[in-house]
Amino acid sequence: MSRTVRFALNGVATALDVADRTTLADALRDGARLTGTHLGCEHGVCGACTVIVDGLAVRACLMLAVQADGADVVTVEGLAPRDGGLGALQQAFHEHHALQCGFCTPGILTTMHALLTEEPEADEARIRDVLSGNLCRCTGYLPIIAAVMAARGAYRREGVE
Amino acid sequence: MKLPPVAYRCPESLDEAIALLAADDEAQILSGGQSLMPMLAFRLAAPSVLVDLRRVPGLDRIAIDAEGTHVGSRVTWRALERSHALAAAQPLLAAALPHIAHYQIRNRGTVGGSLAHADPAAELPAVALTLDATIEVAGPAGPRRIGAQDFFLGAMTTALEPGEIVTALHLPPAPATRRHGFEEFARRRGDFALAGIALSLDVTLPLDVTMARDRAAPRIEGARIAAFGIADVPLRLDAVEAALEGAVADASAVAAAEAACVASVTPDGDPSADAAYRRALLATLLGRALACALENPPAERAA
Question: Which residue ranges does the record assign to the FAD-binding PCMH-type domain (chain B) (predicted)?
Fold first, then answer.
């Protein structure tokens, strides 16, 4: 069966026609054509598809699109300022070389954005613990941790959205 | 893999959810989806319809009263992690939470989902067994309560009858002086445990203070110990509990517990860890959990 699901997508009211079995990840990529959300394992292990639903970082492959009805969904595309350029966390990733191939990066950015929005004082141990939900095969994680640590100041000052 | 074709329903009440399950033998409950969705993706499950509990009222509450702690089946790990009252009332459950999957999974995964899924390596079933918890379910024949020791029947097999839904987990109250320990080992943070231990016990001083000094040492009473990840259900370690009853609460008790564990436990082996390794690992984890319980008197808790 297919139905229309309505939700806020990066702040924009969005309606998508989806089959019941369609995951949120597939709806975002194939329906909304926002391909920043990457699909790695499709069974909840790799974290590449992480998006922010009602303020919480969640696996978009482990949620049906129909379950997002009425929700506020933010993808990696929503982390950049509307007038272009990079958000504070993205800028820190750029400066600290916190990505190489970039496949896992959207999921790490959304996860860490949700974390720092809620916990701008997160220490390195907390960041490492949360980062354990995202697999990266290029960086060895250290530059990612450095970038997230460096971005915390922006979240403390501004409550970056 | 993409999910198999499946329909989706989102009932507004528990009665409606029960009716939807009763109307279709192949219907399945969808709670947080953090175990069921991977099973669909692997096509290990192919239900006809998913009955989502997200709009069923009353299942997302945490209540603490004189009867104990009552956790609705739709309560997420995240909600438990954020509850200071829960950490004070149920420190063993609180100690288990950081070991449950990853941050993103804990944001959606639920108590009821973990109980109904009954993965042999999951933390909550072992905690429920240790704490003598009761699982409340509702179905076409009405609500009923099932003790944790009778609920987990096998790997991913529970005492739930067809058409029944887990609605709550009830944990009995514990005195503020109760000790607890939780340990598990997984190859990577957030992975399923190769073995794990959840235990609770009391440390008591003999009432007769005129006793000889050596006989007046604090002793272990009422140890309850559950192991997980070593069999198709969480197991109480009866022999270890017996070895600890009345034992002096010091390092000798830890050694005795480890010895009783090695002598009495025969874990299942699998390609990731054979039985001998799992037995040694379990004894080590037991020793750590017990030492933690004995060394760390519970902080004063608000009543």
Answer: 1-176
Domain A2-79 belongs to what topology?
Ubiquitin-like (UB roll) (3.10.20)
- The domain over range A88-158 is classified in CATH as 1.10.150.120: yes
Using pLDDT thresholds of 50, 70 and 90, give the confidence band for residue B298: confident
pLDDT tens digits along B208-247: 656 565 567 999 999 999 999 999 999 999 999 999 999 9
Q: Give me the interface pTM, i.e. the ipTM.
A: 0.96
Name chain A contacts of B2, Cβ cutoff 8 Å: 21, 23, 26, 42
pLDDT in tens, B244-297: 999 999 999 999 999 999 999 999 988 889 999 999 999 999 999 999 999 977
Substitution target in B104, B117, B187 with the highest count of A β-carbons within 10 Å is B104
Best residue of A51, A59, A130 to probe chain B, by most B CBs closer than 10 Å: A59
Domain boundaries, chain A: 2-79, 88-158
Contact at CB, A56 and B108, closer than 8 angstroms: yes
pLDDT for position B284:
98
B 24-83 near A (Cβ less than 8 A) = 30, 33-34, 37-38, 40-42, 50, 52, 54, 78
Residue B37 phi, psi dihedral angles, 5° rounding: -65, -45
**How many residue contacts between A and B have a Cβ separation below 8 Å?**
87
Entry pTM: 0.95
